[in-house]
Amino acid sequence: MRRTATLLALILAQSCTVEANDVLDWMKAECIHCKTADEKALCDDGLDNDEDGLADCLDPDCKGIGCCGKLGNEDTDETCADGCDNDGDNYTDCLDWSCSKSATVKTCKSPTQEPEDTPAACSDGLDNDWNGFFDCADYSCSQSDAVLFCEGNDVTCSDGVDNDANGYVDCGDYNCSKNKKVTVCK
Length: 186
Hints:
The protein has 186 residues and is an all-alpha fold. The protein contains six helices and no strands. The protein folds into three domains: 2-62, no CATH class; 71-108, no CATH class; 109-186, no CATH class. Helix content is 20%, strand content 0%. The longest helix is centred in the first third of the chain and has 15 residues, at 2-16.
């Protein structure tokens, strides 16, 4: 394993350093002088690539690379659209209640308030009816007869998938177990 890690470090080092002789310097850091997405991924792969006991954003070498250094509140239009879990609660951007429930964050809402009960409105990544929920996580989508891909009908309530991404699957989801039109959970 150590030999493979060293070989990988040497291969990546050639593309990640400014000068060819910086291999040893590079091996001391998660990634120095990162430029490409593959190189930046070293700071988001869950591994301690430089074997200093610190992985990814916990390693000071990754400060400012990708989502590293963007920790803090997730409650502004900027932080709710940056692709990072800024507040560290395992929810990113509009999937985070700090974003979707905020009265001041506009990024997660459609420009005009409208019903959220059509396939288009239930798959656009926005809170169309401005109730703090969007797409399949919105009760209007799961109850709509026109929306067949959200948790709330016999097919999606028996497919083994958490279609509304709320942590509950099929009959364990309130949208299935309490929905009168779903027969597979009776």
